[in-house]
Structure formats: structure tokens, C-alpha cells
Amino acid sequence: MSSSLEKNMLILRSSDGEEFIVPEVVAVMSKAIKNMVEDECASNTIPVPNVDANILAMVIEFCKKHDESEAEAASDLKTFDSEFVNRGQEALYDLITAANFRDVKELLDALCQNVAEMIKGKSVHHIRIQFLGYQLFEILTSNFIWNIWCDRDFD
Amino acid sequence: MEDSSNQKKKQAIEDGEEDRISSLPDPILHEILSSMDLKYAIQTCALSKRWRYLWTSLPNLRFDFDPYPPPNDSRRLQFAHFVNQVLSQRDTNSNLCNFYFSPYFCDHPSFIENSLSYAISHNVQQLHVAAFCHPNTYQLPLCLINSESLKSLTFEYGSQVPLDKSLALPGLKTLHITGFLNGSAHFITETVGNCPNLETLILDCLQLNDFNITAPKLKKLELWYDDEGWLSDYYQLDFDGLDPVPDEQKIVVSAPRLTSFKLEGRVSPVFSATSLPCLDNVDIDIRVPFNAIIERSLSLNVINMLGQLREASSVTLSLITLEVLAMHTDVLKSHPSPFHKLKHLNLIAEELIQRVRSPTLTLPLNVITYLTRGSSCSDTLVVKFLDRPWIEHRRILGNFVRSPQQF
């Protein structure tokens, strides 16, 4: 029993050395891991470089939910997705990078959709301050003329 | 005057080196921009140098004209101008992946033709066209007819697409056409034959019943008949019987790899393969006008079709289909139960409840027995009642497609 259970489990090791035991069906939602498993170049422990434990745990949480909820209603999954991606910018970009690097399509789609929702329809200087790290004084001084032009044109 | 460190920081921001979002790779930013309205995506060009030309290589373009409120000429011109501007300022070396082109109605065929030519010449893989032109119809660009890049093609307002030449698309996997006028049976037969890699075929608001589908790799087939059309046929008959489908009008399907089949209409296709070993899902909704006399031949056709679909493990039937089967018990008795792998039986209850306005349903037991008797997995048979809220939506679409001349 235990050996057959272990057979379907994989160990993922984050960049900071933490190990996660994950069912294979969940792990292979990452195409990169799937390829490794299919090519049989993966031992039981798969290193996941560039992804720290914190982010890896989130990615696994997402994949588990999507694997389990095959039978669940699509609306439930949507609610889960929208709550899942509702995070601070730092975590969001870390997740995007991880999802991109590990090729987890559903997660990447949900994250990109979320960023798009945050950006769309906002004024240029709003996006600059909120997302591009502009300081207010920079907006108000050096780009003053440019912004007036932008806002008139686009709002 | 700004000091040099401030200057450097400003420069870095403008080059997009500083912040997290700007340092994401192009494909991700394209994905983000593709998830918003094209107008907003283009506006990001004002953010910084990093963003300035990003939109020009966007692989997914969606031009969706909103037909409500009813458009006037200036709105249409504005839309055409927007499309032309975007396409002319786009980076000509960047290929397209997804091109959604829905100008609704326009009176310049060249606008539609040029836009389609642009998409095809940039190796578009998924093309969605919802356009009609009046009084002159547009022509399909020659490059579209033989495109090698196309993987998925959708035509709305199919009746407005000039279908004199069939398509020959070697890479096409998905074809979806909505709305056909009579006379394009040849087009379907030829096109399906000329697209050897076709895996999904959806024909929506069909009005044809004499074409062949020969597709060696086809997995999914959906045939949706325009049932408003059937009803109008029926009104002419003064409610004394259905117009029987003439024998020579037949749909012959040769698709040995079929896994999923959906039918909404009154015509029962004939499957020429001796068996369909991959078949999994079958969804049948026979459309019969309310209070109509159900002909014996109709019941027989449906039973014959179910016999050919015997490999299915999940079967969905409308209650009207059950009625059709129940109408002639002697026919039913003389045929063996078709589904020997049946695991899931779904019944679409909603419509009949609406029709008879009764909260209770009467299931013809002999039909249920006929459907389930042959199954070797019958100890785990799941019977479900499903709703189909989108049926109404489809009807509206069907109506709309049938009379574009009014616009």
C-alpha cells in the first residue's frame, strides 16, 4: 500500500531547500515537470530552481485545487481562482515568473487576467505610480507636460 | 535641476529596468495585454520606453464592434478607422496567433477582405470572422482558401460568407460555421474532405440535410439545426403532420475516430463506419414541434442512429427524444438495446417542463429499459437531469442569422 502510494508521489524541492510531497497528477500540471517525468530524467526528488518555498506552496495549492475540482462546478473554480490571484504585487509577479518558468498554463492565464484587470482603464500616471514605481514628484515635475497630454488623450 | 542619481533612476524607469511588471518577458506582457480591451492595451504605449512598442507585436487582436445600440454610419466608420490604424501601425514582422474580427455589418467589402488578408499574411492560427456586407458580399481572399497556418476557423453569419470555393486548409483542426443557407452542401462536403487534420467540426444553425462528412481524424462533431426553420416549415403544413425527411436527403458521416457527437434537429445522420471504437459522449436532442404527429419513420431513424452510436458510455437525451422513441413501441421492441458500455445517462428536462408547464415528469419506462438494458455496467448507471439555459440564446442567434438583410 505505502509503496504504491509513494509511486504516485513526487518530491519537489524549492530553491531554498524545502521539500514538498505532491501527487504526480498535481505536479505534472507543470509542463516542465511533466516533460521531465515523461523523459524519465527525474528521480523522486525534482529541484525547482528559482522558486522559493513560499511561492512553490502557492503554486501547489492552485494545482491541487484544479486537479481535485474536475468534477466541481466551473463557477466554484472561478471563485477560487479570483480569490487565489488576489494578492500583493510582489507575490503576483513571483507567481507569474514561477508559472511561466514551470509552464503551468492555467495559473499563468489566471494571473495575467488579474493583472490586466488591475491595469485596464486606468490613467497613464495612475499605472506609472501604482505599477511602474514612479514617485509622485516625478510625475508632477519632469513628466508634467507629457501627462497632461496623455490624460487628455486617453481618459 | 535634478542631480545625477535621480536622473539615472528616472532613466532606468523609462527604460523599464526598475519595476517588476516591466521586467516581465514580452510574451507574458502580451498575454496581459491580450486579456484587456485592445484600446486599453494600446494606451499602455504611453507608459515608458519599455511599453512604447510592445503592443505593435501583440499576437492576439480582438476587434469586436458592439452592435447595440443600433450603430450609425459614423460609429461604423470610426471602427473601420481604428482597425485600419492598428493594422497599419503594427510591427509587420510579428506573426498573429489569434485574430477575432467582428465588424458586424459593413458596406465596404474591401474593408473585410483587406483585414482578413492581413491576418492570413501574418500566419494567423485562430481566425474568428463575424461579418456581413450588404448589398455587395465580400470575397474570401485567395490566401485564406489555401492557408497553411490556420488551425482554427470560425465563421459567424455563415449565410453571408461567399462559399463558392471550398477551403483546403492542411493544418485546420477546428471548423465552426454558424448559419448556412441552402445550397452550400457541396461546400461542407468538399471542405471537410480537403482539411485532412480536422478534429472538431461544429455546424450551427444548419438548414441542410444532404451532405457528407468524411474526416479520418475527426473527434468531435456537432450539428445544430435551426429549429425556427423547422417550425416555419411546419406552419405551412397546418399542423397535420411533419414533413417527412425525403429519403435521398441524407447526412453520411465517415469518422472512425469520433469521440463526441452532438445533434439538435430532426435529421438522423448515417454513420458509415461499422463501429466507432473511440466514441464516448453522445448528446441527442430531436426537435419536434409541439403537438406534432410523430411519424414512424422518424422514430425508426433515431433508433437506427442510436444503434450506430452503441459504443457511447455517456448519453444525453432530451425528453422530446424519449417521446419520439416511445411513440412507436413495436419499433422499439424489435430493436436490441444499443448501449453496451453505458455509464451515464443524462436527461434534459428543462424544455419539456416548460412546454407542459408541469412540475412532474412522466418518463416512458419502456424507453428507459431500451436504453439501459444492454449495459454491462448498469449497476453503476448514473441518471441525471440537466438544465440547458443557453437554448434560448441559440434560438435568438438563429433568428438573427436568418434575416441579416433587415439591417
Strand elements of chain B, count: 15
Number of domains as seen in the coordinates of chain A: 2
Q: Encode the helix/strand succession of chain A as letters.
A: HEEHHEHHHHHHH
- CATH H-level homologous superfamily name of the largest domain in chain A: Potassium Channel Kv1.1, Chain A
Largest interface, counted with CB-CB under 8 A? A-B, 28 and 26 residues
Strand content bin of chain A: 5-15%
Structure notes:
Chain A: It comes from Camellia lanceoleosa. The complex is a heterodimer of chains A (155) and B (407). By secondary structure, chain A is mainly alpha-helical. Chain A contains ten helices and three strands. The radius of gyration of chain A is 20 Å and the shape is globular. Chain A starts with a helix and ends with a helix. Residues 229-242, 244-248 and 389-407 of chain B have low confidence and may be disordered. Chain B has 407 residues and is α/β, with parallel strands linked by helices. Chain B has a domain at 1-57. In chain B, helix 7 (142-145) links the parallel strand 3 and strand 4. The A-B interface holds A 89-90, 93, 96-97, 100, 108-109, 112-113, 115-117, 119-121, 124, 127-128, 131-134, 138, 142, 150, 153-154 and B 2, 10, 13, 16, 18-22, 24-25, 27-28, 31-37, 40, 43-44, 46-48.
